[in-house]
Design goal:
Helix content is 54%, strand content 7%. With 330 residues, the chain is mainly α. The protein binds adenosine-5'-triphosphate (ATP) and L-tryptophanamide (LTN).
Length: 330
Amino acid sequence: MQKPIILSGIQPTAKLTLGNYLGAVKNWVKLQNEYLCYYMAVDQHAITVKQDPVQLRQNTLFAVATYLASGVDPKTSHIFVQSHVPQHTQLAWILNCFGYMGELNRMTQFKDKSQSSGKNIRVGLFTYPLLMAADILLYDTDLVPVGDDQKQHVELTRDIAQRLCGLFGDDTVKEPKPYITGPGARVMDLLSPDRKMSKSAENEKGTIFLADTSKQVEKKFKQAVTDSGTEVSYSEDKLGVRNLIDIQSAITGRSPDEIVSSYEGKMYGHLKVETAAIVNEELAPIRAETERYLNDPGELENILKQGAEKAREHASKTIERIYRKVGFHI
Ligand code: ATP
Ligand code: LTN
C-alpha cells in the first residue's frame, strides 16, 4: 500500500528562523515515517520579493542543509529545489487561468507584503498562491504541514482543486488538507509579539535565526518584550510571555499549564533565561550539523539531484494528466 503524501516548502528569502523550524521543519521530521514526503526549498517563490542572486543560492543550500540537519532523512523523504522541477511553473500557468482575481485579493499575506513593496508591486507576489497551489497539486498531496499563516493558501488550493475536479472530473487533482498543530504553529516576534516571527522582519533583534550563536540567542531572549507585571501566566493579554511559554512547549512537549506552574514564585527574567537555554540546547546540534552539510557541497548536490529526479517522476505524470484534461495536444 502506498503511504499518503505530504508536501511542504520554505522560501529561501533569508536564513531560516526558529518560527520556520517550530512551525514547519520539526513537524516534517515527525511525519516522515508515516507519509511519503516531498520537502522543497521554494526558490521560485523567493523571487516574488527582491533577492540578491548570490545570497539566494546560498540561502537555498542553507535551507536544504537545515532540513537534513534537523533530521529529515533523504533515504525516505524527497528533498529538492523547486526550480529543478519545471512542472511547478507549467502547472502554475494553468492555475493562473483557473484562479480568480477576487480570491487572490483576499489573501492576507499579499496585503501585508504588498504594503512594504512600495509603488512597484510584482505581479508574482499577487499570483504566488497559485504557484503554491501548483506545488501541492503536482504531487497528489494529502497533507500540507505548515505554520498557521499559510492556512489561507492551503484553503485556496482546496477551492481550486474542487473547481478543476468539477470541470474535468474527480480524477483531475487531489484535494489536500492543511496540517497545522501545536504551540509552534505561530511563533511571534520577540520584540513585537503581536506579529509573527519572520525571516524578513525589519528589526532582526526580534527574530531568532537558526544560524545565531548561543550568545546571540541569549541576548535576544533577554531583550524580549514581556508585558507589564512580573508573574508568569498564559493569557491572551500577555502576548510576550505567552510566546516564550509556547516556544518552550513546542520544544519540550510540556503543556503551557505545566510550564506556568514550574514558574510559581519566579519572575519574567527566569523565564527568558530558561527559554534561551532550552532553545540553545535544541538548536546547537542542528547548527553544527548544518555547517557540516554546507562544508560538503558534493553530498548536498547528490541529495538534491536524487530528490529532483523523484519529484520530476511524480510531477511529470500529473502534468501530463492535467494537460490532457484541459485539452492540450500531447
Ligand atoms: P518571509 O519573511 O520571507 O515571508 P517567513 O519566515 O514568514 O518568510 P516562509 O518561508 O513564508 O517563512 O514560511 C515557511 C514555513 O514556515 C511555513 O510553513 C510557515 O507557515 C512557517 N512559519 C514561518 N514563520 C513562522 C512562525 N513565526 N511561526 C510558525 N511557523 C512559521
Ligand atoms: N508559501 C509558503 C511556502 C510554500 C509552501 C508550498 C508551503 C511554497 N509552496 C507548498 C507548503 C506547500 C510560505 O511559507 N510562504
